[in-house]
Design goal:
The complex is a heterotrimer of chains A (about 140), B (about 475) and C (about 150). With about 140 residues, chain A is of the alpha+beta class. Chain A contains three helices and four strands. In chain C, strand 1 and strand 2 form a beta hairpin. Chain A: Keywords: Ubl conjugation pathway. Chain A: This is LAFE_0C05270g1_1.
Chain lengths: ~140, ~475, ~150
């Protein structure tokens, strides 16, 4: 089975994101549309309903390194959020405390990552966590 | 292989009856041995798993626009996957009724029933086992040895990236509901179900094919040990040699196949059956919609959706089709003598039409000898209409939501117990206003869908008419 | 690793034994479907002084599906966008399984020789091209000097 190289994989993801073919609860795109290496991405996650995150829009910054998708990207919350897997100083999602990053598979995409983070917000243990004021950033 | 669930080992028992009568059409004409050969041929035919009746069975007779349940769809897909298994005893002129390669089921979604009967009718070349290479200098023994070593089917990759981490559970248990994470949303459960189903089907396909491979090997070994009494389904050395010593490379997959191959109707270029059945129409799309990312598909008129017939890969002539001229002297297997009793004959020289590479002019797509890409995927029209309906439904939904938003004026005080009230300005329907609730908006939606379907069907008819008058 | 289809093996061999003038294509050792490509800018085009790097990938369904190709060298061209994506009919709707890596790369070389601003991928570049072709060609020349490898 062939392994899609990094750049073509990222182009696929970009096109999916641009065409809005993904789910409505998250979105992502290139941070710099001139960056031929396609390293830095911006994402948003719509907070899940029936939780303290409801109706909030969280911004994240994603960095797809040279080894992506063999290695997971680095992902950091720009918007302040209180979640156990998010470093409360830097906003970084801690790899060891977030299963999608820890057990990363090549078939995972940025969309997988964003949707799984949204699921994390909706977990019974997390959904009622007190949240910082809306609109504040790390 | 040791842990194959027993349930999967065998196909359902052969349905006897109807299919045997087909052997009556078997042409004889070459002397004394005909009677016994015909007898053998009828048992070959009897072993055919699928009946040869082309219409009135399967899902074409049913309303193709009827929505199928997930389980029905899964059943059809599994049935299709079974027909992709290459079986050594389903042989036609030294080839087979199913493809050799490991293409995904999605890519092999041609109508297996149609293709199998086209091959049996010798209107399309059988699926031959390809050689990676061929060398003219090979001796008879070398060719036979190489052909003897050919597997029935290419070997599958046991694990695909696509199915990484997808649970498949016990394959012999048709129920796999227990594998689905019930805490997920309904849409996600559906997604997971389809993933698990596909992963399971992939593994089943491997097992089915491996079982056939094993059977094939056993028969070959047995035939070797009992020299003389050969297996009636296995080709003798003479057939193996005749098939492969005259072969050609398919210009698309670069693999080497016995000749004659299928030939494009327009420019007379060869193409193997495996490549032919992979050439198809593009998915329904809007004209020139590429890079047109600003306008969402939902906002366009569903009736503008189009799907053009496939072009010839060689000369780009629209409506790709091929013809196939079988070699009469190589007729063996289903509806022919046993491949084990094949006798080498010099090709009939004066019969120009049976000689490979003979020159005919290009033929129209509608010529009775021509098999078009559409003919092996007759579902394309249903697919297009369904896609139009889906879009129509979506925009009808959007309109319905819009309409209901206009109808339903937010009620600040509790004037009506339902919390809904209507502004008479917007409603001119004779219904009693008290019953006019959101369910009626649903009726409007239904009417709109109906209207959209009518429009799209009318458009279909219109197109058909135009095509007919163009001919 | 799954075995490589015969077609890909044969095409690769033929690319080496019978190379196309001005074009190289070399598979990566760890991924034989992934090629490193160079194309020389065609004579009498604003790209003539440079050698452009591209990457090419043969997807699973190749040759039923077109190869994926992208410029790695920045280039000023109305049919090539800022990420190096190429707008070329044979890579999309007019792909045919009878075409090959070789023919695709030749088509890309031909696209460099005759830009088509009326069917643009990079809208801003195409606009420049239509408004003031001379200036656009000059800019393409300059970008070639700046980003492409000299011949």
């Amino acid at each position: 089975m062939s392994r899609v190289p990094r750049s073509f994989r990222l182009l696929e993801e970009l096109e999916k994101g641009e065409k809005g073919m993904g789910p409505e609860s998250c979105s992502y795109g290139l941070a710099d549309s001139d960056d031929i290496t396609m390293t830095n991405w911006n994402g948003t996650i719509l907070g899940p309903p029936h939780s303290n995150h409801e109706n909030r829009i969280y911004s994240v910054a994603i960095e797809c390194g040279e080894e992506y998708p063999d290695q997971p990207p680095q992902i950091k919350f720009v918007s302040k959020i209180n979640l156990p897997c998010v470093d409360q100083i830097t906003g970084e999602v801690k790899k060891n405390q977030f299963h999608t990053l820890r057990e990363w598979k090549r078939s995972y995409t940025m969309e997988t990552l964003l949707l799984d983070l949204r699921k994390e917000m909706a977990l019974p243990t997390n959904k009622k966590l007190p949240q910082p004021t809306e609109g504040s950033n790390f | 292989m040791g842990n194959v669930p027993t349930k999967l080992e065998d196909d359902r028992p052969v349905r006897s009856g109807r299919s045997v009568s087909v052997s009556a059409t078997t042409s004889g004409g070459n002397g004394g041995a005909v009677a016994t050969r015909t007898h053998r041929a009828s048992s070959l035919v009897g072993n055919l798993l699928t009946s040869r009746s082309r219409s009135n069975s399967g899902f074409y007779s049913a309303n193709p626009y009827k929505r199928k349940s997930t389980k029905e769809k899964e059943k059809l897909k599994e049935k299709h996957a079974r027909q992709l298994v290459v079986k050594y005893n389903e042989t036609v002129d030294g080839g087979f009724l199913a493809p050799y390669g490991c293409c995904s089921i999605e890519k092999l979604d041609y109508d297996a029933k149609v293709v199998r009967s086209l091959i049996i009718d010798r209107k399309l070349a059988p699926f031959y086992t390809p050689l990676q290479d061929f060398d003219d200098s090979w001796s008879v023994n070398e060719v036979v040895k190489i052909v003897d070593g050919l597997p029935l089917h290419a070997s599958f990759t046991p694990e695909l990236e696509e199915f990484e981490g997808v649970p498949i559970g016990d394959l012999s248990n048709p129920d796999f509901d227990y594998l689905i994470d019930k805490t997920l949303s309904r849409r996600e459960q559906r997604r997971m179900r389809s993933k698990i189903f596909n992963a399971r089907l992939y593994q089943k396909r491997i097992i089915w094919q491996e079982n056939e491979n094993e059977r094939f090997l056993e028969q070959k070994l047995e035939a070797k040990n009992h020299t003389g009494a050969s297996n009636q389904y296995l080709p003798n050395d003479s057939l193996k040699y005749d098939m492969y010593k005259q072969g050609a490379e398919c210009p698309i997959c670069f693999l080497y196949f016995p000749e004659p191959m299928n030939v494009s109707r327009c420019c007379l270029q060869p193409i193997c059956t495996e490549c032919f059945i992979q050439i198809r129409r593009a998915e329904p799309h809007f004209p020139h919609d590429e890079n047109d990312s600003d306008s969402q598909d939902e906002n366009k008129d569903p009736n503008l959706l189009i799907s053009e017939p496939a072009n010839c890969p060689y000369c780009a002539t629209p409506n790709f089709g091929v013809t196939y001229e079988p070699l009469k002297e190589r007729r063996t297997g289903i509806q022919g003598p046993s491949p084990a009793s094949y006798v080498h004959q010099e090709p009939v020289k004066n019969d120009e039409s049976s000689v490979t590479g003979k020159r005919r002019g290009s033929l129209a797509a509608g010529h009775p000898q021509v098999i078009t890409s559409d003919a092996v995927r007759p579902e394309w029209q249903v697919k297009l209409t369904k896609e139009r309906m889906r879009l129509a439904r979506r925009s009808a939904n959007a309109t319905a939501i819009h309409v209901s938003n206009q109808l339903v004026v937010p009620n600040h005080d509790s004037q009506s117990p339902r919390g809904l009230s209507i502004s008479p300005r917007d409603v001119t329907i004779s219904d009693s206003p008290n019953t006019w609730t959101s369910t009626n908006a649903g009726d409007i939606e239904n009417q709109m869908i109906e209207q959209a379907i009518k429009l799209s069907l009318a458009d279909q008819k219109e197109q058909k008419k135009r095509r007919h008058s163009a001919k | 690793m799954a075995s490589l289809p015969k077609r890909i093996i044969k095409e690769t061999e033929r690319l080496v034994s019978d190379p196309v003038p001005g074009i190289t294509a070399q598979p990566h050792e760890d991924n034989l479907r992934y090629f490193q490509v160079t194309i020389e800018g065609p004579q009498q085009s604003p790209y003539e002084s440079g050698v452009f790097e591209l990457e090419l990938f043969l997807p699973d369904d190749y040759p039923m599906e077109a190869p994926k190709v992208r410029f790695l060298t920045k280039i000023y061209h109305p049919n090539i966008d800022r990420l190096g994506r190429i707008c070329l009919d044979v890579l999309k709707t007019n792909w045919s399984p009878a075409l090959q890596i070789r023919t695709v790369l030749l088509s890309i070389q031909a696209l460099l020789a005759s830009p088509n601003p009326n069917d643009p991928l990079a809208n801003d570049v195409a606009e420049d091209w239509i408004k003031n072709e001379e200036a656009a060609i000059e800019k393409a020349r300059e970008w070639t000097r700046l980003y492409a490898k000299p011949k």
